[in-house]
Q: What sequence folds into this?
């Protein structure tokens, strides 16, 4: 429940954003399942707000393609389906490879030390069998790679795609051997960046994303 104060007119926009963030997190983490209907009255009571910010949140979710407003039914959750995943990972293969290539040309000694520390910590937590820590560090490695590309546009685009599939990335890391393989791939990308070899960094990054995609789709297929 949010503390909405006494006047939604003053805080409606910020409340709508907060409801949106809560609902988006629920959808992207698969806590709110595809096919569920978002009922305004129920959500208003749950979050302790009027229906205005709930409607705003649903509009934002619709714009992002996470729900579909169906006449006489309401806002039906779409979530991220298998086709979306294939598209997201394929797009990532192209532009994250570019990010790695650009990073190889621009990366500083301090930034290389930062990435080295992340991969070293991944290896440490892999020995400690701490998958949540490994997954968090995986996210940090990719976010730093986007940042070190030197392109704000590229970084923003990739960060948004990464955010959309957080739950699925956790699912991928749950498969036997994937974490160890991903860390090894990070180390290879890091070595290419250290050498300033943009072409190699790009190729290794594309292979890394492709391997992650194939692993995830195999998991999803096995669960059907």
A:
């Amino acid at each position: 429940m949010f503390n909405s104060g006494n006047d939604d007119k003053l805080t409606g926009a910020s409340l709508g954003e907060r409801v949106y963030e809560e609902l988006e997190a629920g959808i992207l983490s698969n806590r709110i399942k595809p096919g569920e209907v978002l009922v305004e009255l129920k959500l208003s009571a749950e979050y302790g707000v009027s229906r205005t910010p709930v409607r705003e949140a649903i509009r934002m979710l619709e714009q992002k393609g996470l729900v579909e407003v169906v006449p006489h039914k309401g806002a039906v959750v779409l979530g991220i389906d298998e086709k979306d995943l294939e598209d997201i990972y394929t797009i990532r293969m192209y532009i994250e490879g570019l990010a790695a290539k650009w990073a190889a040309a621009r990366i500083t000694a301090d930034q290389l030390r930062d990435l080295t520390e992340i991969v070293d910590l991944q290896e440490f937590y892999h020995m400690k069998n701490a998958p949540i820590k490994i997954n968090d560090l995986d996210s940090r490695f990719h976010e730093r790679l986007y940042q070190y590309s030197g392109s704000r546009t590229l970084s923003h685009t990739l960060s948004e795609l990464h955010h959309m599939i957080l739950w699925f990335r956790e699912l991928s890391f749950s498969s036997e051997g994937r974490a160890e393989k991903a860390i090894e791939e990070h180390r290879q990308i890091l070595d290419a960046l250290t050498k300033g070899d943009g072409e190699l960094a790009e190729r290794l990054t594309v292979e890394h994303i492709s391997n992650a995609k194939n692993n995830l789709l195999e998991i999803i297929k096995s669960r059907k």
